[in-house]
Amino acid sequence: METHDDELIHFEVHGAAPLPPATIESHVERDGARIGYSSYGAGPAVILLHGGLGHSGNWGYQVPALLRSGRRVVLIDSRGHGRSSRDARPYSYELMAADVLAVMDELRLDKAAIVGWSDGACIALILAMTVPSRVEGVFFFACNMDPSGTLEFHPTPVIDRCFSRHAADYAALSATPDDFHPFVEAVGLMMRTEPNYDAADLGLIHVPVAIVLGEHDEFIKPDHAEYLARSIPDAQMIYLHGVSHFAPLQRPAEFNAAVVNFLDGIGTRKNEGLRR
Description:
single chain; 276 residues; hydrolase activity; AB_hydrolase_1; AB_hydrolase; Alpha/beta hydrolase
């Protein structure tokens, strides 16, 4: 029987499940930053992009499931997050999207599916807009694409527990372990003012996309998620029941099933195209 962590009590104390040993673990120097990444397994590539203030270790429940499904899994610590460093320039989603491309180039990945969570979802969709030839599809979980898409912030015990874990992980992983509060301020500024894409921009996306939202998401308006699904050609709208912004941690089996189903659909679509 699956263990749920709906209140993130386990996550606050222990973090996500430990990651398995990596096949490749390294970094790439790019544009004033050192971007850490790791790769696991073999097969069609899927890149997992974590949320703001977190790090790639937050995907500990997802990596084994994706490996079992026969995929190569690539994790990236976003600029300034986890083991990745940054310079003094402001954060931007476009800058972090370019970092992902640099990792793909370093790993010689011509193309990959991308699973993005919160800020990572925004980064993934920017890649789908700007370099569609590199993107097999995007599983877009729990983010906005313009500032109007966010709910008014109300702290909750679940959010507080997640923030506490992020603070502990930052101190343990970062090259600047005492700078958590400036880090939060800098990322927060980006979140308040970006991204800024409109329906015309979204209409230019022509890779498979699933817009996914937890039933009880604390940050994203459901009508914004539905607007994204309407605006992106042929996008799916998926609701995950009983979970919030932290579904990959709260009920990983259900989240993983949705991800694998989406990725399998991309593979089926690709194979049908080859047979025509």
